[in-house]
């Protein structure tokens, strides 16, 4: 691996690398537009399209090499329609950025071999595995994945952390602190210190594969023999702080899933929704990183949920407060909703904020699961949600400046936006509100998947109402 292809570790180097790639490509884009003045319409469009393709490929290369939080940004951008890119070129960007989910650049074996030797105390791989492929088949933001076969014949996935990624992530976190301080200038009510600490804690947990293994074992136990959710088992004896060995899952990846029929995509989307939101109520624990690369559609129709490096546990009180907010919004009760936001910590001085506008703002963000009707999630709706969440151009920006984001809620909001972005790529259609009512009001299952799921949990002794029994 050349010097240029190593993971940049310093804060300034990582900021400069990302900034330069955007700046250079922006200048080239402007130059192409100027040159197009003298070209035919068809020729100009062809050159501009080529420039967009080159820019997307450069971004993929830069973000893929940087790994860490920068790469996560690129993965997130790959399944959200970014409005700053001309509509006719968005598909080009998304197609290229999607490679960060499915085909990100991996490190050659000689660069990770020393780390593997250290983690296994020099024990030869031949004594641990029957076969081990030294060429990675997948690369994520902080590690890459190799196929292997255990001595007993089981096929496994071996995730190996990139050497030097800890230092790179620490640099990203220092940059994140700057962004949080900037966010505080936009939203003065934000507790920047608490938010920065929450981000740091979650990201540094992600570096500890033993902690991830513990999370994954918890989810695997909770969903073992579940009718449509599958969590691969961890091979504990071979997992280490920087190596995670799990069962290998095969099936359709997200790009293939997007080519399925609308109903098949909607079913897949419902499973993602039930698995991501439902675990809050069933386990008091959720995965905060639901991007498309973390889901695989298995041959038997189940969906495998992968990557439990960034999760969040909630206490019962916080879940009850969330349900009260849902209940108030569902009943169209602005006063109760404003009080619920105050109790959750989103609103410091409720009397100074208009209750009706607060509820309108919530509907702009969460209307897709508050409105009692079938809703097809579109890319346009996803962009509207993101705009209503943090865009200064939003009609709710004055409210955003006076609201806050409690540190305990940060990962939940990340998960929520990630899930709706996945649903938007699928154009999944369901009455999401009726599904959510199963968790809040103990309503009868709204779909066939719901009936299967509740039978599963009831057989395990879980009560139908995992939350506010007193809500009527």
Which consecutive residue ranges, at least 5 long each, have pLDDT under 50?
1-5, 11-39, 63-84
Give the oligomeric state of the chains in this entry, treating copies of one chain as homo and distinct chains as hetero: single chain
Rg, Cα atoms, Å? 23 Å
How would you state the average pLDDT, rounded? 80
Q: Report how far apart the termini are.
A: 62 Å
Largest sheet: number of strands, sense, barrel closure: 5 strands, antiparallel
Number of strands: 12
Number of domains: 3
Helicity range: 55-70%
Approximately what portion of the residues adopt beta-strand conformation? 5-15%
Structural class: alpha+beta
Count of helix runs: 19
Shape summary: globular
Question: What would you note in describing this structure?
Answer:
By secondary structure, the chain is α+β, with helices and mostly antiparallel strands. The chain folds into three domains: 3-102; 105-248; 253-472, no CATH class. The protein has 19 helices and twelve strands. The protein has helices at residues 11-35, 41-66, 68-78, 90-97, 99-102, 109-119, 165-186, 192-206, 209-222, 254-257, 262-283, 316-330, 334-344, 355-370, 379-390, 397-402, 407-426, 432-440, 448-459, and strands at 129-132, 138-139, 143-150, 155-161, 229-230, 243-247, 285-287, 295-297, 303-305, 311-313, 375-376, 429-430. Strands 1, 2, 3, 4 and 6 form a five-stranded antiparallel beta sheet that branches. The protein is globular, with a radius of gyration of 23 Å.
